[in-house]
Structure prediction request, 838 residues.
Amino acid sequence: MDAFIISIGSELLTGHTVNTNAAWLASQLNMAGVGVSEVRAIPDNEGDILRALNDAAEKTTFVLLTGGLGPTNDDITTRALCKYFGSDLITDSKVLEDIRLFFKTRGRDPGSVNLRQAMVPEKAARVIRNPYGTAPGLWFEKGGVSFIAMPGVPHEMQNMFSFKILPEIRKKSPGRHILHRHVLTHGIGESFLAERISGWEKSLPPAISLAYLPSAGIVKLRLSASGEDEEELRNLIGEQIAGLRKIIGEFIWGYDNDTLGQVVGKLLRERGLKLGCAESCTGGYLSHKITLIPGSSDYFNGSIIAYSNRVKEEILGVPAELISGKGAVSSEVAGSMARGARKFLGCDFSVAITGIAGPSGGSGEKPTGTTWISISSEKGTISRKYTFGDTRERNIMRAANAALAMLAGAISDKFYNQE
Amino acid sequence: MDAFIISIGSELLTGHTVNTNAAWLASQLNMAGVGVSEVRAIPDNEGDILRALNDAAEKTTFVLLTGGLGPTNDDITTRALCKYFGSDLITDSKVLEDIRLFFKTRGRDPGSVNLRQAMVPEKAARVIRNPYGTAPGLWFEKGGVSFIAMPGVPHEMQNMFSFKILPEIRKKSPGRHILHRHVLTHGIGESFLAERISGWEKSLPPAISLAYLPSAGIVKLRLSASGEDEEELRNLIGEQIAGLRKIIGEFIWGYDNDTLGQVVGKLLRERGLKLGCAESCTGGYLSHKITLIPGSSDYFNGSIIAYSNRVKEEILGVPAELISGKGAVSSEVAGSMARGARKFLGCDFSVAITGIAGPSGGSGEKPTGTTWISISSEKGTISRKYTFGDTRERNIMRAANAALAMLAGAISDKFYNQE
Prediction:
């Protein structure tokens, strides 16, 4: 059983949009044991859509379309599907109700353009209601092939696919499984990691493949296996991960979809502790990673973003002579910021970051990317220096990840923060 | 003149690699006046490659292939090209020299597997040497169609395309240009925008096409035109944008690659003003958007992230009875936070956000997504209520964008912040 993905939208052919929808769908399908035979991106053009539907129906059992279901004139997927299936449009009263409700809860009038989205092909076997937007999904069956059209807005598509489409696809394709597990590390570069685990990697059973996925100081190791018995695959991968823990345990901070923000949050929650931050060069990004986690208000008191020295002095209580004497990017100032944040935000743990994000501001002694991170708790203050690169956005991300890893280590008394 | 992109590699069909190569190529081609009619991602499989070559040759003048030229066994693009063009393989002595040199400068032995990459189809019109890797590019001509195969490693492909392929493509398609311009709006939904500009849209000259690209409260309008005279296209699109400004000028905050963070920064810098924030539900994301801009320390003093009520009271000076009486998510508390931030951060303009990001915390009266944003300056305090959706991450993004749009409006005395 396999699938053919048709991505519809001119923005995919001008390079303005990267086709992340196709990659996301492909990975979801793979995990359900459904391979993808082709991904085709085409413009909002009836002829191209009809040709793709014909080619797909010849090759595969599931044809997944994204995009072109919206309310504006450039959205013509529904029209092409009507032509392909020889269908008329009818009004779906439930979808009409959904659209009206969608706008009502937002205190707005839907207008005639939006209501038009309640017109669906009468030959659709199923109309899939969209709780996060106004364009419904459409499911057709013809000659043993399922054709499933979804909106192109990523979060609408992902929600619809995960909860309303994937369960049906699973029912139709029992037996085959592809299993992936991720081991998440911090504090060791990709090539050093590869050297450290080369013996383990060489002795992996042939059913398991390994990939290195690095980003902003974090290296994910992906172990993949395919077979018929899901339980067996799970055990096989589990054994290998246990072996990996013995070699690089001190660098592992999580698995699969864990985030460092979650890991830190869980540690704080378990211990009933409160956290606060003082950020300079990361400018709010560290706090954002912490507060992306639902329920983070239970353990996060807040943060002082001290971009100017005046705020460092007046709100965090960093002595002016410390800044002029040691420089704003120094162990002493980072430590003082952390202690100030802990006091003024009234928390058990605090973390402070001060660094040179770039592109300007670096010097011979302190090049762009130089960053000090300090953690303060009743046990005292610990500070570390990091030297990242010269790209502003990446420096911000790497500093936030390093701070979270250091924090997780400090709260749990483990040590997975070496660089 | 248009192009067909064939992306070869199983990793594109498992979702492990997002097809950024295709987006990059498409944007380069577009800028050179060559449209892309289709992007097709297929596995390393001879049958699929041959079918794609046939389909592509029927439709287009340039067929661009990436991937599958490497030294390992799963790389079969060269073999498929030999079959398609009825060609044998011969050793290219210059490529052989390149490969030997590549490994020599890295202090390693190439080995027989790598040397195999010097075998190229004898019918290739041109072998394109690769300064950044070992796999050469291949250029074929047949029936007026150019077939160009490049390595899949992004930086090798980009370098080869920019310096060795694009100049040749430009020679073959002289004078043809595709021009895109983006008009960036905030504060009006896609469908309302479409209704508002429907008359303008209907009277667009046939050379111009329009697309709506919505994300997190921002709708980008893309105007595209193709023709022979770049200057003429620029004027043609410019005239239409001037018309658009008359209809929806109050919603337009920028053009092309502008970000709201840049626009706000520019307004502050021009006026010599300082900014500070008080964030609750956005938890640092607003400050992050502001501080992503290089040089933002010139006008951004800092921010108080007041996640707990205690921080709202003690650092921002919000009266406790205001929070208990009106609720933390209220016009009064937002206004008080903004005034507190302006005072304690010592700035000219401040913006405060308080809302229910979700997923929990909502009520009948104040559903998840309810958000108050206030701006304080010496002119006074203005506050607005927004009702976003029920997804935490999207609510955070939409609130930050709304705050920046509101701020830009307040600083410039324009009004592009209505919802």
About this structure: The CA atoms of residues 272 and 299 of chain A lie 8 Å apart. Residues 392-412 of chain A form the longest helix (21 residues). Chain A has three domains: 2-172, 177-255, 260-412. DSSP finds 15 helices and 17 strands in chain A.
